[in-house]
Each structure stands twice: as C-alpha cells, then as structure tokens.
C-alpha cells in the first residue's frame, strides 16, 4: 500500500534493506494514514529524516538518543549562555562608574549678551551676534554656554529686571533669533543655559501692574505691607543696592519689598499662584529645549512674614545709618525655611525633561553666602533628594586678596573639605558682578590662574574674556551705566562688562558696523584680542585652549584624585592621579612676585627628574628638572606629566579628594568602579 506521495528530495539508502516507502502525507490521505496501524517500530527506523516528515516520524526520531542528547545539550547551553549574558550585563553595569555628564566635561562659558557681539550696529550685543561667534566655542572646546538674561526688560538692571519672561527684548532680537541660536548650538553639540530670575520681576511686569492696582487675583503676587507714605520703612531691611528695601506705591497706598532696585519688586513665592507661574515658566523654556538654568539670587526667595528688624552688625550704630547689606545680619531676609523645598520642586520639574539620553537639564544656583559655607553646600543634591548640580563656588573670587600658595590652597581646601561626598566641585573667578581677576590678581597671574582652574577637579565657569586675559575698564562717574554705581562709582559693575575683544579692528570687532559701543572698549584691545592670540602659541588663549582639550582627553584631570602636595608663601602644588593608570599630573603654581625653588623630593610617587609639559612661560615648556628643585619664575605655573605605578592617595588620604572613585584597568583599557 502506498502511504504517501514520494518526496523528490529523498534519496533511498541503498545499503539498508528493505527501503521504506513512506514520504509526505496528503491531507486527504491523512486520516487513512492515521488510522493505519504501524506494525513495528522497525519499519520507521528505516526512514531517513527529511523536511516535512509527519509528526509520528518526527516523534520517533526526536526520542532517539542521538537526537535527544544533542538537543538537550543545546538547550542547556542556550540557558547557560543567556544566564551568563545577564550576569555579565549586571556585573558591567554594577562595575561601571557613572559617565560624566556634559556639564562636568566642559567649562561653562558665561556670555553677558550686551557685551559679546553686536550684529546690528546699535552698540549693544545681541543674539544674532552670539550666533555669529559660535565657532569660538568649537575652537576652545567649550560645550556649555550660560547667557545672562535676554528677556524683555526695561533694562534698569540690564535684563535682571524682567518685564516678560516669555519674550525676548528687541535689543537682543526676537524669539525666532533665539530659536535659531538654540538650534544651531544644538547642532554643534553646544548646550545653552538660561539665566532664570525667580526672586523678582521688573516693576513694569504685568503682574506688578495688576498687583499694585489691587486686582484680586494678583493682590498677593508681591510682598506688600502697610507703611507711612512719608517715611516708607516698615522695618530696617536694606537693599543689596543700598538703602531701604521698601518703597511706597502711590497707586496701592502700601509699601512693597525689593531686595534689589526699587524697579525690581520681590515676588511673593509663598503664594501658590506665583509658584505655579514660576513653574510654568520653567516648563516654557524647557519645552523650547534649553539645557539648564542658572537660578539667580536664590537665597533671597523668601523673607520672614513677621517683618521684624534684622539684628545690626554694630548694635551701637544709629538706625538711620543702617544703609548697606553689611550693616545687618540677614536672619529674616535670606535663606528662610522653605527655600530648599522650593528649589527641589523646581528640580523635579526639570528632571521630567532629563530622561532622554543626552538631554540632562542642569541646575546651578547663585548665592553669595560669604563666610557661611555650610549654607552654600545646602544647595547640593543629597543621595536621596535632588537639588542643584552645584551652587556657584565664589570663594576663588577672593584669591587676589593675598596671592600666595597657602592662600590658594586654603580657598580650594575650603570647598573640597566642605563639599558633600560624591558631589562635583566648580570654580568661579569672575562674572558680570565681580571685578575681573585679570586686573585684581594682575596680568602676570592670568595664565597661572587659568592653568589652576583647568587642572582642578570640577567645572570651571569662564566669564567671557577670561580666555584672553581681559582687564577691567576704567569708568568715570559720568560714564556709569550700572545702577549699582549710580551714587558710588566704585560700586559700578561696568568695569567688568566692557565689550568682548575679538580683533584689533574697529571696536575690537565687537561692533564692526558703526562707532557705537554701550561701554568703552578696553584700550589694550590691539594686543588683547582673540584674533591676535590665535596666532600666538604663547598667548593666554592658546594656553586656555590647549589645557581645555587636554583636560577632556586625560582621565586623571577630569575624574582623578586631587591631592595637594605642597603649599608655602609662594607656591601651591597638587597631583592629579587615577588609580590603576600610571600616567599622572603634577601642577606647580607660583603665586608670588618672586621666583621659587620647591623641593618635592619627599613625594615618592614622582620620578627623580620631571619634565614640563606646559608652562605659563612658554619658553620653559619641555624643561627638565630634579624633583628636589622645581623652579618657577614669579607667577609661573607648570603642568608636569609623569608616570608612576605608586599612588599618592593610597598613603595620604587626608590630602586627597575625589568626587566619585573610579579605577583604571590598564591591561584592558577600561574604567571600573572600585
Ligand atoms: C544677581 C545678578 C545681578 C543682579 C541681581 C538682581 O545677583 O547676578 O547682576 O543685579 O541678581 O537680579
Ligand atoms: Mg545690537
């Protein structure tokens, strides 16, 4: 009987008799075939396997040891491999140190938009101007830019008095210019950090107009209290810009509080509607795609509701002489309960936008806490609660007070020893509010300070012009633009806000179109400018660029240990090393006006002879010297690369800091958690 159609591909095995005739079943024939009682197993044993064989045949084969055993082996092998892969993945994840984020890998460059580049010839910098100059950041290897405010503003405090947080001031351009700038920056892998001002608005803001006219919805948007129209001082609180922080408003017949100018009324952030407005604004700009915020003046966000007088620093001073922020202890106007909760709420809003890879939104807070570093450190996140990525570290602004190795060490130590474990350091030597370090420390220290910043652990903030060593301009009383200098020129912030020096052309290339600049150009622009310094290997710019590129490519510099090894009246010296990596760096900085010879022979990890990789005195590059006599000229900084298998931090823990420990496996070239 024929049991099926013949399989054309089936080759009969001539060597085995009798040859089976079974091939494929046709469906109609299936039932016949099923009903067919197979006499013996022998019969099927004669059949060779082939594609499409019937179930019975298949079962028969699959139960044979020669098929069953390999099948089981393969099955268990697959299970074992899968488990091994899962285990390997878990191990790799567990052993991998966290990748550094964009705000840790690059300096944050601060642009003061009035002063960066003027594209339309009105003498004031603008967004299109910034767009024109983006190559500058590629050149410097800078990946993050913070732009001071460019919202619509009456410019009483040059943009820190915001009339409309959702609009761009026409002086700077349009929303379209902003969007173009952001798109182009992102195309170039550049991040944009917005300045955000939650403490106050301009007195021209719609909310303030509605609040002063008593609109029920906006009544409590600001801090109002009853006061005497002829002596509008409900208490002794003073403004950062001097005199009472209260002004009388005729329309409402009450006083409003302003921590800064009277044209900058403080918002009442105890009002949930105001908080909602602020968080809507945060969403507005995050939706636009900005990469982070620099939160302005955060310690001033809340004031005590009881409005009691603040204690005087000198209790004997007559109350009418209490006019500056230095006259009072700010127990009731700064760092009030609720501040950190609010910042954490904003942080949580930001984190919603941080989830996509590469889209981390960064938060830096501005708070001058002077001698209260523990207050500053409160702005850092904790392992359980996220807040700022870092608060600005303003302590190095004091460096020029006493340029010595010991002082530099003290200021750096101050931050490193107070910073919570696992957090990320940062360094600021200038901004639009502080005199330029190039002037206050002196031109001979510019390169050395830049070398220090770019070889310390943490993120550097570079205020525009620091990369070429710009200096303060001299301002006379009649040239004053800054409201802080209106009554006392020495308080003016104009000296550090002069136009960026791009070239030795007209207006230093800042405004190449007309002879207008909102502040004078520094007279040194013929030599201190980007173009000239690009062509000079020994320039401040060339050194900045070299060190910034080196910092990114060298793991000891961006994520290694920082260990101070020497400090005296002249010299400060430290090591940067990574466990497991033999390549390490020694930095020797002379902060004095005299040359120095430093004996580092007690540092066993250093080879007896060292070679200079970079010197701030260009001609000393490549110099070799014994570690017992490291020579530095007055104000000179040296970066020395060396190789050692011993690690200084192993035996000197008290001199060393690290943000997040990682080790290097030189044999395989991988970094792992250790
Ligand atoms: C911040 C700014 C400063 C401004 C003040 C008021 O401190 O840096 O320039 O004047 O806030 O907004
Ligand atoms: Mg302009």
From TrEMBL:
Main location: membrane
Subunit structure of this chain's protein: Disulfide-linked heterodimer composed of the catalytic light subunit SLC7A9 and the heavy subunit SLC3A1. The heterodimer is the minimal functional unit. Assembles in non-covalently linked heterotetramers (dimers of heterodimers) and higher order oligomers; the oligomerization is mediated by SLC3A1 likely to prevent degradation in the endoplasmic reticulum and facilitate heteromer trafficking to the plasma membrane. Disulfide-linked heterodimer composed of the catalytic light subunit SLC7A13 and the heavy subunit SLC3A1.
Positions of region (Disordered): 1-28
UniProt membrane topology term: Single-pass type II membrane protein
GO CC, alphabetical: apical plasma membrane
Residue spans crossing the bilayer: 73-95
SMART domains referenced in this protein's UniProt entry, alphabetically: Aamy
Keyword terms, alphabetized: Amino-acid transport, Cell membrane, Disulfide bond, Glycoprotein, Membrane, Phosphoprotein, Signal-anchor, Transmembrane, Transmembrane helix, Transport
Entries under InterPro entries matching the protein: GH, GH13_cat_dom, Glyco_hydro_b, O16G_dom_2
The species this protein was found in: Neogobius melanostomus
Record protein name field: Amino acid transporter heavy chain SLC3A1
Gene Ontology BP, a term: amino acid transport
Domain Glycosyl hydrolase family 13 catalytic residues, every copy: 110-497
Cell compartments where the protein resides: Apical cell membrane
